[in-house]
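Q: Given only this backbone (843 positions), what sequence would you predict?
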């Protein structure tokens, strides 16, 4: 509240820079370092905050409906003074919580080290020196130096600016860049009109500015919004599936539990024990270790990715990576080396030309937009003498104009405006052309020639940019509107060779059933040329211009058939991604520019590189420390493994437990006693959870990783029905044998059934984890040994002295052998069913 008041009392946009700086006790040369130290938000002592973080992390392991059910059961058991039950439930809770906590902590620690590399820095002026500090360390009164690609670190008042455009979509929803200018704005004007100010979280599209930071952190507009909304994390398709599935199970469990309670009470059993019995059963049905399995699979996946120099910013991105079936990529640096080299400077008549060389150099030398490989290449060129030149003005590059203008001056030469950019966009603003002999001619007569040249260069694999100029001595300060009536000079041919292994990389992705689509701002001809080189059909290409004329629906209809999108504007990149998603694809996007940020955000998996602009890095889910598509293939495999192992866990919980519940309900009707004591049910659950957890690290058969797979709840339901039914059949067989053949006492009955159900669950785990014959698929070490250990434990427990306190008894050998035989036949039946089921549902 107080903060709001202070903001209302400080409408800095309606004040002059001097007033604001006076009030903030700062100056244009920046704060002193001692001032900065005083203004830094006081850190909570690092020790304590680390401890608090750990506690939070631990607590966060319990914040899902499944563990809540466990907690509820625990309280209930304690209330009934059933201490064995309580102890077992508590162990289960603790085990799942600890494991999740431990794994996640290990993973976050590894990730944090890498994330430190990712810290976005802001340039500030302090004690009259320019320095780069982590974005969060900007303090009130800091003088900010902003340039294209930066994320703005604070709410600030602009002091000076040059062609400064900011994208404020995060705050205003307006995706068109808003132009900033200096000067006072009425205090009551809405945020969108405060052109003299910038706001935290928005980003610079082009140009440069200095500004004084007025509000930081939670005091900013962004901070207010975040506090209000608690930034709603979007769920991935996978998470949605899991959650829906979890709720479905809960509903079913509750329903069946209700029926069981009813039957038991109706048949005259003790009401409270019946409730506890039903509660224990519904715990059995719920995949209570699912959260832990998920965290473990994901975080160990993230760790393995880190070893391959991939930083996973958002864990769930790994799942999406596995499910991804279309990968969109920009061109420069992904397909190509990204190290652009200048090949030549060519005039219309085809001659190497030194004036073009000089002008291109001047333009690149003085431009101040965000770093791009073309200007780097041009600046590297040794050049004829440019001493004596001075920069007068600039209009930075943007992805709509695709041009960049610089005004330079030199004694005796007046002021010259030099513009370079995409060839089309240069021709657009030129009406004359300069010949080698110095003549100026109408450009119109050369349009065909230029087109042909361009085709020729592109076919040879060159990226061509155009250069033009005009004399602006009369009015050397320019705006975008001055880009007209210029004199065309010629071409700069640039070379950006494709990566040597790009064909194999793309082939590799294709083998994994991920389709690559190229979305580039570059020219159609070049894109075609590249398509041919990497083995994509050059026919499946569409240009940004054509996209413009299409409605969203029309794009959706078309998007599948196209492999290359050329000459696109930034907003079209996002449109394409969304259209692909509407077609039902899970879409990845790789990009590193300002123009990629919205597409990165829209994609299911956004991938960027470490030297990308801040906005792109911020928007991405994964960061590659080296821009190699090949590592993505490893990531895709990780994602698919995660998915498969999660699915295994679900399969096993479903088939074994669902059948169990059914059988229990049945058994309750005709047995005069409870088929298992609540504590025994919990113990069964606990024991089978141990191997189930190690599924997280299980090996996965190669054939299961071949294509992206989706969460398919319909399939799960069928799977559950079939295997549940089968397991019930065997349960009833077991009951019948125990009651009619062995005339078992309640203790023997329960012990026999305990052994049978734990062992069948483990055997069926071996069966279900693969589609091959179970012994033909190699198992994860952990899984194998933990299963063996549990089997031994189960066989030993009844013969231990403490077994009576658990309600077990030493069963006769023939009962034991019969139970084991039933389990083996059951596993064999599972093999058969599995084969038929997978084939029939072709999943
Ligand atoms: N600094 C610059 N100076 C002049 N022209 C430029 C500059 N940057 C880009 N262009 C022009 O704009 C076009 C589009 O830019 P760019 O190729 O970077 O887009 P993109 O979508 O990021 O492409 P890519 O897929 O290669 O990453 C370029 O082909 C070039 O003609
Ligand atoms: Mg790019």
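A: Predicted residues:
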């Amino acid at each position: 509240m107080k903060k709001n008041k202070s903001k209302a009392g400080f409408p800095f946009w309606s004040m002059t820079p001097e007033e604001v700086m006076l009030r903030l006790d700062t100056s244009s040369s920046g704060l002193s370092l001692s001032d900065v130290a005083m203004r830094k938000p006081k850190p909570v002592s690092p020790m304590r905050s680390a401890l608090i973080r750990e506690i939070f992390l631990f607590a966060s392991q319990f914040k899902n409906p499944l563990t809540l059910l466990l907690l509820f059961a625990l309280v209930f058991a304690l209330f009934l003074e059933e201490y064995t039950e309580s102890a077992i439930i508590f162990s289960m809770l603790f085990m799942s919580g600890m494991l999740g906590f431990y794994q996640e902590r290990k993973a976050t620690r590894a990730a944090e080290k890498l994330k430190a590399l990712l810290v976005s820095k802001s340039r500030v002026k302090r004690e009259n020196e320019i320095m780069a500090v982590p974005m969060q360390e900007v303090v009130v009164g800091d003088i900010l130096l902003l340039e294209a690609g930066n994320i703005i670190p604070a709410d600030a008042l602009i002091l000076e600016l040059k062609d400064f455009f900011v994208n404020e979509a995060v705050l205003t929803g307006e995706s068109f860049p808003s132009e900033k200018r200096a000067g006072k704005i009425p205090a009551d004007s809405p945020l969108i009109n405060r052109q003299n100010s910038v706001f935290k979280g928005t980003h610079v599209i082009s140009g440069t500015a200095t500004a004084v930071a007025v509000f930081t952190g939670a005091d900013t507009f962004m901070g207010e919004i975040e506090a209000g909304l608690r930034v709603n994390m979007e769920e991935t398709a996978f998470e949605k599936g899991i959650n829906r599935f979890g709720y479905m199970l809960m509903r079913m469990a509750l329903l069946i539990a209700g029926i069981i309670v009813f039957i038991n009470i109706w048949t005259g059993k003790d009401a409270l024990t019946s409730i506890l019995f039903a509660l224990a059963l519904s715990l059995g049905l719920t995949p209570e270790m699912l959260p832990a399995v998920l965290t473990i699979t994901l975080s160990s996946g993230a760790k393995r990715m880190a070893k391959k120099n991939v930083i996973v910013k958002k864990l769930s991105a790994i799942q999406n990576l596995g499910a991804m079936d279309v990968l969109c990529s920009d061109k420069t640096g992904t397909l190509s080396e990204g190290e652009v080299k200048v090949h030549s400077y060519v005039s219309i008549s085809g001659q190497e030309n030194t004036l073009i060389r000089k002008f291109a150099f001047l333009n690149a030398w003085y431009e101040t937009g965000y770093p791009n490989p073309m200007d780097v290449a041009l600046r590297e060129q040794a050049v004829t003498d440019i001493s004596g030149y001075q920069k007068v003005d600039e209009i930075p590059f943007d992805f709509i104009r695709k041009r960049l203008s610089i005004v330079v001056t030199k004694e005796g030469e007046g002021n010259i405006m030099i513009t370079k950019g995409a060839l089309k966009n240069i021709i657009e603003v030129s009406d004359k052309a300069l010949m080698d002999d110095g003549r100026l001619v109408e450009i119109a007569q050369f349009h065909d020639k230029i087109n042909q040249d361009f085709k020729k260069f592109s076919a040879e694999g060159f990226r061509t940019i155009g250069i033009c100029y005009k004399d602006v001595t009369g009015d050397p300060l320019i705006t975008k509107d001055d880009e007209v009536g210029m004199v065309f000079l010629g071409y700069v041919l640039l070379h950006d060779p494709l990566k040597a292994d790009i064909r194999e990389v793309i082939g590799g992705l294709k083998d994994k059933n991920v389709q690559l689509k190229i979305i580039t701002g570059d020219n159609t001809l070049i894109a075609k040329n590249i398509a041919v080189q990497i083995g994509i059909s050059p026919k499946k290409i569409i240009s940004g211009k054509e996209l413009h004329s299409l409605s969203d629906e029309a794009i959706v209809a078309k998007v599948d058939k196209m492999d290359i999108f050329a000459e696109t504007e930034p907003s079209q990149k996002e449109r394409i991604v969304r259209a692909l998603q509407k077609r039902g694809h899970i879409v990845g996007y790789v990009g590193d520019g300002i123009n990629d940020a919205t597409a990165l955000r829209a994609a299911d998996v956004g991938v960027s590189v470490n030297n990308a602009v801040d906005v792109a890095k911020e928007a991405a889910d994964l960061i590659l420390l080296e821009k190699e598509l090949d590592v993505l293939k490893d990531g895709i495999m990780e994602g698919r493994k995660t998915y498969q192992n999660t699915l295994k866990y679900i399969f096993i919980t479903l088939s074994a437990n669902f059948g169990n519940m059914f059988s229990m309900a049945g058994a309750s009707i005709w047995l005069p006693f409870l088929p298992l004591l609540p504590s025994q049910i919990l113990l069964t659950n606990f024991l089978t959870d141990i191997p189930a957890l190690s599924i997280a690290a299980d090996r996965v058969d190669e054939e299961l990783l071949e294509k992206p797979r989706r969460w398919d709840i319909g399939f799960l339901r069928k799977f559950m029905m079939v295997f549940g039914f089968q397991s019930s059949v065997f349960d009833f067989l077991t009951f019948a044998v125990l009651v009619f053949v062995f005339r078992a006492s309640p203790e023997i009955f329960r012990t026999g059934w305990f052994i049978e159900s734990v062992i069948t669950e483990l055997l069926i785990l071996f069966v279900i984890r693969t589609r091959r014959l179970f012994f033909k698929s190699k198992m994860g070490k952990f899984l194998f040994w933990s299963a063996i250990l549990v089997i031994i434990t189960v066989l030993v427990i009844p013969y231990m002295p403490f077994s009576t306190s658990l309600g077990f008894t030493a069963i006769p050998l023939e009962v034991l052998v019969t139970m084991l035989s039933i389990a083996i036949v059951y596993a064999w039946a599972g093999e058969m069913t599995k084969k038929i089921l997978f084939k029939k549902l072709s999943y």
